[in-house]
């Protein structure tokens, strides 16, 4: 179930996070409940509740977030590969109502994802 937007509190610096990247469009920080040795979340500053709420206006932002993911994967030495995940709404397993990209690495990932 989608709960409070705790990520807005991280953007507003009301709660701490281990931030690894910050710019005018997005923020990236370590996930508090890592599912892999490296687990970083990349979020836009703009409030977009879910992936399904993206519009044409967000094209550039999405491209930017992907390029930040590539940069972070290099910085965090995920040279053998990594997984990008965006959970969308209840059936997709989304719990925080603020679009976020999971960057996971440091172990093997399998398919189907479960
Ligand atoms: P999702 O299930 O796709 O909505 O992912 C939400 C993610 O946010 C989960 O992996 C949580 O562990 C993570 N999370 C929740 N609260 C925080 C927080 N305060 N700081 C960092 N990560 C968080």
Please describe what this structure looks like:
This protein has 114 residues and is an alpha+beta fold. It has a single domain (2-105), classed as HIT family, subunit A. Helix content is 24%, strand content 21%. It has helices spanning 6-11, 59-75, 89-92, and strands at 19-22, 26-30, 38-44, 83-85, 101-105. Strand 2 (26-30) and strand 3 form a beta hairpin. The structure holds adenosine monophosphate. Adenosine monophosphate is lined by residues 6, 15, 17, 29, 31-33, 41, 87, 93-96.
Topology record:
Elements (H helix, E strand, L loop, with lengths): L5 H6 L7 E4 L3 E5 L7 E7 L14 H17 L7 E3 L3 H4 L8 E5 L9
Antiparallel strand pairs: 1-2, 2-3, 3-5, 4-5
The structure holds adenosine monophosphate (AMP).
Shape: globular
Structural class: alpha+beta
How far is the first residue's CA from the last residue's CA?
18 Å
CATH architecture: 2-Layer Sandwich
Largest sheet: 5 strands, antiparallel
Provide mean pLDDT, rounded.
96
Question: What string, H for helix and E for strand, traces the elements in order?
Answer: HEEEHEHE
Summed up, the domain count is: 1
Strand content: 15-25%
Low-confidence stretches: none
The radius of gyration over CA amounts to 14 Å
Number of strands: 5
Q: What ligand species are in this complex?
A: adenosine monophosphate
- Under the CATH scheme, which class? Alpha Beta
What order do the strands of the largest sheet run in, or round the barrel if closed?
Answer: 1-2-3-5-4
């Amino acid at each position: 179930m989608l709960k409070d937007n705790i990520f807005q509190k991280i953007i507003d610096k009301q709660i701490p996070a281990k931030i690894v990247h910050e710019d005018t469009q997005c923020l990236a920080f370590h996930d508090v409940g890592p599912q892999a040795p490296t687990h970083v979340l990349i979020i836009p500053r703009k409030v977009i509740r879910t992936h399904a709420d993206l519009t044409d206006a967000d094209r550039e932002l999405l491209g930017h977030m992907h390029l930040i993911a590539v940069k972070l994967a290099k910085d965090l030495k995920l040279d053998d590969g990594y997984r990008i995940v965006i959970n969308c709404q209840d059936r997709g397993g989304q719990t925080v109502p603020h679009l976020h990209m999971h960057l996971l690495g440091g172990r093997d990932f399998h398919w189907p994802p479960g």
